[in-house]
Design goal:
Elements lengths: L8 E10 L2 E11 L4 E5 L6 H9 L6 E6 L2 E2 L10 E4 L11 H11 L6 H10 L15 H13 L5 E5 L7 H18 L2 E6 L2 H7 L2 E6 L2 E6 L1 H6 L4 H6 L4 E11 L2 E6 L2 E6 L12 E6 L5 E4 L11 E12 L3 E8 L2 E9 L12 E6 L5 E4 L8 H9 L1
Parallel strand pairs: 3-8, 3-9, 6-7, 7-8
Antiparallel strand pairs: 1-2, 1-4, 4-5, 9-10, 11-12, 11-14, 12-13, 14-20, 15-19, 16-17, 16-19, 17-18
Helix pairs in contact: 2-4, 3-4
The protein binds adenosine-5'-triphosphate and magnesium ion.
Length: 384
């Protein structure tokens, strides 16, 4: 049931203000037809508001919403080729699963619904449950009913607002893959709102990271992760380590940087900051890119790697990996994740170590920003 063209969502200069408060700053965004698009951001950053403006449930303060070639800004929700699935799936409790899914067809006066409902239930793998009532299903099954109920209307775009928010972690993971499979099968545009970075990265082709009412960065998950354009994105998507450094020179494709009394190498192409000699740069490196070697074995580290020294202050064994916190003169809580293949038992708190990594895994950001941006918000979310 792939739709024809026209499932592009294009937002142009769209914004929303409540009194003097701006929930969404003027935003330009194109979601290509057939893509799985995630709006990711901390609580209150404007995700739901953006989604509701696409659905027509919220009137924009400025700007236009286009679906394909159609300007839908002035259309009421029910006239837009869009359906929404919310966190509370609000199934009809007195109707069985079959009738819940058939609802949209019956409302349009369609009498022979059996084939279509059957196909929809097969799509979400609930064919066997058709005659059960919603309360007889698990949370994940109910969520799939909600998806089937929305998809049976053949929307061009399906909007999902934290649809997995009520599920426990394991079921959430399962449903992420399930939703991704359904999207691939039906081929329509999904716009998925979440504050869970792993969820966004697992499911979406393209992720827009929102921060305080605007899109901070947009891209494919791996690209955002490997090439964050700001400390906010670097911290919000996973964990990053930052070292303050100064541009000392250039050698071929690389910048050489002075950090403390040491030297680091950064590919010039991976630096989004100005690179004039003497300029300040925040050097970033992800925890899993770093190797740890006990200081006694420092001689065995190959040449050409970036290296700094430090002392282990904490180590947590979490099964697939061990996560270390290292105190270094350049950064007081450097995080290093080591896969548990061959563990060096000397790497315990108090051990003197060398941290080293391939310079290609280094990125450089403008130093005039908050190193902690985005990090605290993740913790707030986790606590909430
Ligand atoms: N009707 C309203 N009147 C006033 N302020 C509002 C209204 N609706 C939303 N806001 C504010 O706009 C901001 C964005 O809200 P929105 O619901 O879009 O956030 P969100 O990113 O979806 O957050 P969450 O992850 O918590 O759902 C918030 O600060 C919120 O308090
Ligand atoms: Mg919301």
């Amino acid at each position: 049931m792939t739709t024809e063209n026209g499932g592009d969502v294009r937002l142009a200069g769209i914004s929303k203000t409540y009194g003097s408060f701006t929930a969404v700053k003027p935003l330009d965004l194109t979601v290509p037809q057939g893509s799985f698009f995630a709006l990711l951001g901390a609580s209150g950053c404007g995700k739901t508001t953006t989604l509701r403006m696409i659905a027509g449930l919220e009137e924009p303060s400025s700007g236009t919403v286009m679906l394909g070639d159609q300007d839908v800004t002035a259309l009421p929700p029910y006239k837009r080729p869009v359906n929404t699935v919310f966190q509370s799936y609000a199934l009809f409790p007195h109707l069985d699963i079959f009738e819940n899914v058939a609802f949209g067809l019956r409302r349009r006066g369609i009498k022979s619904v059996k084939k279509q409902v059957g196909e929809m239930l097969d799509l979400v793998q609930l064919g066997e449950q058709a005659r059960k009532k919603p309360h007889q299903l698990s949370g994940g099954q109910q969520q799939r009913v909600a998806v089937a109920r929305a998809l049976i209307n053949h929307p061009k775009v399906l909007l999902l607002d934290e649809p997995l928010g009520a599920l426990d972690l394991k079921l959430r993971r399962q449903m992420q893959l399930e939703l991704k499979r359904i999207q691939t099968e039906v081929g329509i545009t999904f716009v998925h709102v979440t504050h869970d970075q792993e969820e966004a990265m697992t499911m979406a082709d393209t992720v827009a990271v929102m921060n305080a009412g605007r899109v901070e960065q947009l891209g494919a998950p791996a690209d955002l992760y490997e090439n964050p354009g700001s400390t906010f994105v670097a911290n919000f998507l996973g964990t990053s380590n930052f070292i303050e450094a100064e541009v000392a020179g250039r050698s071929g494709e690389d910048l050489t940087l002075k950090a403390g009394d040491g030297k680091l190498v950064l590919p010039a192409a991976r630096c989004t900051a100005a690179t004039a000699i003497g300029g300040k740069v925040l050097v970033g490196v992800r925890p899993e890119k770093i190797s740890l070697t006990h200081a006694d074995d420092a001689g065995s580290i190959p040449d050409g790697r970036n290296r700094i020294t430090g002392r282990v202050v904490d180590s947590s064994f979490i099964g697939v990996s061990t996560q270390y916190v290292i105190d270094s003169p350049l950064c007081d809580a450097f995080e290093v994740y080591s896969q548990n293949i061959e563990r060096d038992s000397r790497l315990a708190p108090g051990a003197e170590v060398v941290l080293h990594w391939n310079p290609a895994h280094t990125f450089g950001l403008d130093a005039a920003q908050d190193i902690e941006a985005g990090a605290a918000k993740v913790e707030e979310d986790a606590a909430a």
